[in-house]
Design brief:
- It contains 7 helices and 7 strands; from the N terminus they run E-H-E-H-E-H-E-H-E-E-H-H-H-E.
- It has 233 residues and is an alpha/beta fold.
- Strands 3-2-1-4-5-7-6 form a 7-stranded mixed beta sheet, sandwiched between helices.
- Helix 1 links the parallel strand 1 and strand 2.
- The chain starts with 5 loop residues before the first strand and ends with a strand.
């Protein structure tokens, strides 16, 4: 039996979980939850620098993600390593997610809303769809991916899914008390946001102002928004 309640965050790219739900991760980790990261791609196309190569970028982004997860208090990071921009909602990909759900046995799963606000990156859509299908019905049904039994993995029924980037969120997490932790985690992604050691205070203030401007809750200006789905098995 697990000694901690577990939540799993499934992101398409390195940095997606930190930008979207880093405050929630930090808050739940502080409250005693075991936080598990699953990152589906290696992020090897996340640059517009003509001097950068996909091979070099993938090498950079893995340790950035692991460092960021440590800042937030996530205890486990699973990097699936698919090429950036190439995710497909396949039986094999869903099987990877089912296997990890059965391995870590989370009570909650946080994922991209595949039908979210604004134009949605294809990888985000594929990761969100595959996660939802992995959670229900596959992970909880022994007839799906029966080969996992050979690893000692048994079916697991997730209780809740928190979808970020939703058009109509119904659940909000106040992250004002962990905002600094979230920003320190985001700053680990130097390949994406640059090195802000020389202008730290200005950069933090700019990100804070942007977050407040984008808030879906005027009464909770520093918050992360979700559409919560309760699974009824």
């Amino acid at each position: 039996m697990q000694d901690k309640r577990t939540a799993m965050v499934v992101g398409a790219h390195p940095d997606d979980p930190d930008f979207a739900v880093g405050g929630t991760v930090a808050k739940w980790a502080r409250d005693g939850w075991r936080m598990v990261y699953v990152v589906c791609t290696n992020g090897d196309k996340g640059s517009s620098d003509p001097e950068m190569t996909s091979e070099r970028l993938a090498v950079l982004r893995d340790p950035e993600q692991r460092a960021s997860a440590r800042v937030l208090g996530a205890s486990d990071v699973e990097m699936l390593g698919h090429p950036d921009g190439c995710l497909e909602d396949t039986i094999a990909f869903r099987g990877e997610l089912v296997r990890l759900i059965r391995k870590y046995r989370p009570e909650r799963v946080l994922a991209h809303d595949p039908h979210g606000r604004h134009p949605v990156h294809r990888d985000h859509r594929m990761a969100g769809m595959a996660t939802l299908d992995a959670v229900f019905p596959a992970a909880g049904n022994p007839m799906f991916y029966a080969e996992h039994r050979a690893e000692g993995l048994t079916p697991h029924k997730v209780k809740e899914v928190y979808l970020w980037g939703s058009e109509d969120p119904d659940t909000f997490v106040d992250i004002s008390d962990v905002w600094d932790t979230k920003i320190k985690a985001v700053a680990c992604h130097v390949s994406q946001v640059g090195d802000h050691s020389a202008d730290w205070d200005t950069w933090i203030q700019q990100r804070k102002e942007r977050a407040i401007a984008m808030s879906r809750r005027p009464d909770m200006p520093l918050s992360e928004a979700f559409r919560r789905v309760e699974l009824r098995w």
